[in-house]
Specification:
Layout lengths: L1 H13 L7 H4 L7 E2 L2 E2 L2 H4 L15 H22 L13 H22 L10 H22 L7 H26 L6 H4 L6 H20 L3 H18 L8 H13 L8 H8 L12 H22 L2 H4 L3 H6 L16 H21 L3 H21 L5 H7 L7 H5 L7 H14 L3
Antiparallel strand pairs: 1-2
Helix pairs in contact: 4-5, 5-6, 5-7, 6-7, 9-10, 10-11, 11-18, 13-16, 16-17, 17-18
């Protein structure tokens, strides 16, 4: 098992973007399989909560995730649509809820059908897939009925269009149930695990690369962030040895990108809005994202400090010495560039104290800035001296939202956005009609 892990990790680090080696890392003939045995099945099988979309819609973890998500979104929509008939636009359910509901409906239906196909033929009769599809169709019909009875003229067109789209989606699911029962047009190829088919793996990797490129350019940013995160997590959990523990930080930052308007300023989406005359002069972003990211950073450092405190080498200050003397981790041989032991011992104690006291240091402004500067220099030092993949870049990316970008973009004599808007409002109020 350990030899297999080492072989996969060495191959993955040699060709980080997989390319032509995709089938060596994933699929039925890859290094992750020993005959018919899936080496990394323990990562995703119950009772673990890890998931991978490439395991197929019917995998217990995936189906549970889809069903719970469908139930939560359905409850939110039903609660919103059952509100007062005089509700305003602010109280109207978001069209994004209906889009998410439609996607989760398809995923949940296919997941249930994938489980049904594993039953004996006399049990998995036609009425089971039809019953599942009919249930979703009736729920979407209920949403459409509730949306049509709303009296809010401002919100109704958007909500009714979204509910109609949801009804169309579930109608297609209903037709797919009939199609699945047709002997000459089977749907079973879509219900099988995707990691068992090399073609599906290549398509998933192409979608991963395309969505990541769109995310970098800021094109269809929100959708690109969701697709990119889902597929990256799918590949990571399909083969547990293609990444190191530092790549967990990538998944964390990527998750936050899905929840935020990360394409609000420097993106192709913003450029397209400007060309259409739809972009506002000043973009205001809610600060909860930065607060959550800051809390995440506090948890990472503090709990790492607690974990290190349990290690004898950290308590006696010899940890950095052993790390830098390990030829598989360092970029430069310690024998050629030896550092004094007392200096490495002091650095080990400094890192340990800094991580354990980080939650307290960031409470006060004058110590917060110093703590963040030390963290940035700490990760730069790790990136220069050690071979840890992209870990340093992932952690430094978490510092980017804390930079005063609005000050960097302003001219020296230009007032802040809020003050500028107050000046413009005052001028408009004194302007003659």
């Amino acid at each position: 098992m350990h030899m297999c892990d080492s072989a996969i990790r060495d191959s993955a680090n040699t060709n980080r973007f997989f390319g032509s080696h995709l089938r060596d890392f994933f699929g039925p003939e890859s290094l992750s399989r020993v005959g018919e045995r899936d080496v990394f099945a323990y990562v995703i099988d119950p009772p673990r909560w890890n998931w991978s979309l490439l395991r197929g819609f019917g995998h217990p973890a995936n189906l549970t995730l889809f069903a719970v998500g469908w139930g939560l979104v359905s409850g939110c929509l039903l609660f919103a649509l059952l509100g007062s008939a005089k509700s305003t636009q602010a109280n109207a359910p978001s069209p994004w809820l209906f889009r998410a509901w439609s996607v989760l409906t398809v995923l949940t239906a296919f997941g249930i059908w994938a489980r049904i196909r594993t039953l004996p033929s006399d049990v998995s009769a036609l009425w089971l897939p039809l019953g599942v599809a009919g249930f979703f169709w009736m729920v979407s019909g209920l949403f459409l009925f509730l949306a049509r009875r709303r009296k809010d003229e401002t919100a109704s067109p958007t909500v009714r269009a979204a509910t109609t789209a949801a009804l169309v989606t579930t109608t297609l699911v209903l037709l797919a149930a009939l199609w699945r029962a047709w002997p000459d047009l089977p749907l079973d190829w879509l219900l099988m695990p995707f990691d068992a088919r090399p073609f599906a793996l290549y398509v998933a990797m192409a979608l991963t690369m395309a969505s990541t490129a769109c995310l970098m350019l800021g094109l269809w940013t929100r959708v690109a962030a969701i697709v990119s995160w889902v597929l990256m997590m799918a590949f990571d959990n399909l083969n547990h040895s293609i990444a190191n523990n530092g790549d967990v930080a990538r998944g964390i930052v990527h998750f936050y990108l899905m929840l935020t308007p990360c394409g609000a300023v420097w993106s192709l989406d913003r450029w397209r809005q400007k060309r259409r005359g739809l972009a506002a002069a000043t973009v205001f972003v809610h600060p909860w994202f930065a607060r959550l990211l800051f809390l995440q950073l506090i948890c990472i450092y503090f709990f790492n400090g607690l974990y290190k405190l349990g290690g004898e080498t950290w308590r006696d200050g010899s940890s950095l010495y052993y790390v830098l003397a390990e030829p598989t981790l360092t970029r430069v041989s310690f024998a050629q560039f030896a550092l004094p032991y007392w200096g490495l011992q002091a650095a080990s104690f400094t890192v340990l104290v800094w991580e354990l006291t980080f939650p307290l240091l960031v409470v006060f402004r004058w110590t917060r800035i110093a703590a963040l500067w030390m963290g940035a220099l700490f990760h730069i030092g790790i990136g220069v001296s050690m071979e840890l993949g992209m870990f340093s870049f992932y952690m430094l990316a978490m510092y980017m939202p804390f930079l005063p970008w609005e000050r960097l973009r302003r001219n020296g004599n230009e007032p802040p956005p809020l003050e500028r808007e107050k000046v413009e409002d005052a001028r408009a109020a004194t302007r003659p009609p």
